[in-house]
Input
Amino acid sequence: MAALQEKKTCSQRMEEFQHYCWNPDTGQMLGRTLSRWVWISLYYVGFYVVMTGLFALCIYALMQTIDPYTPDYQDQLKSPGVTLRPDVYGDKGLQIFYNVSDNRTWTDLTHMLHEFLAAYSPAAQKANINCPWERYYFQEGFDAPNHTKFSCKFPVDMLQNCSGLTDPNFGFEDGKPCFIIKMNRIVNFLPSNSTAPRVDCTFLEDHKDSPPLEVEYYPPNGTFSLHYFPYYGKKAQPQYKNPLVAAKFLNIPKNTEVVIVCKILAEYVTFDNPHDPYEGKVEFKLKIQK
Output
């Protein structure tokens, strides 16, 4: 029993480990001869080469089923969302408050508009084409350079008094500010059968006792021309520019917070989804102090 319980010394353990790492009597290293190590290494190399090849083949076959011109992820929205510029978010959504007498309160807002419209400069749209027709621009093939589809220009001067060209302050200094409304993109979306969608801005019901909101729209009637639709995706139309509508509010009461809602009126655009407040419309608070 004493012999069985006898502990090995540290030197004995090291000697056994060295003998396991290299056994000069049998020529084994880590329990295997050199030839066995060669064969097992070749086996695992071949195994992982085959597995890598099968994995690559599966990925290749999968990629062949994916259309590169169709987005990988598409949500279930049937109507586009609507965004506003300038966009200043407060605790409860979009809130634009400023003082006409203090340009420090609205300079950032006009700067935001200038930055946004810089993407619509002639230099930024030199690859786009003029589309004078008022109908959908369907494109079956990829006739534009680099196997893409053509995109229509949106000249910023179409926004006239809200383009920043004639009035760099966009009316904020006069208490008659301009806001730019944009529809988000949905691939192959057609807003209506034949009528161009248009923007309609009003006071929310809480302000129905006030005079109706007076608005100047640019382009006239606040319409999005049909030739900007359908949108074929970022890869097919890398130079695409969203059409815009500018709304210039003329009779905002001073020193009073008002809520304005701008809706897109079109046959296939809905704005009554209770789960998405920005589907088909944009709602924001505006207060102009004097």
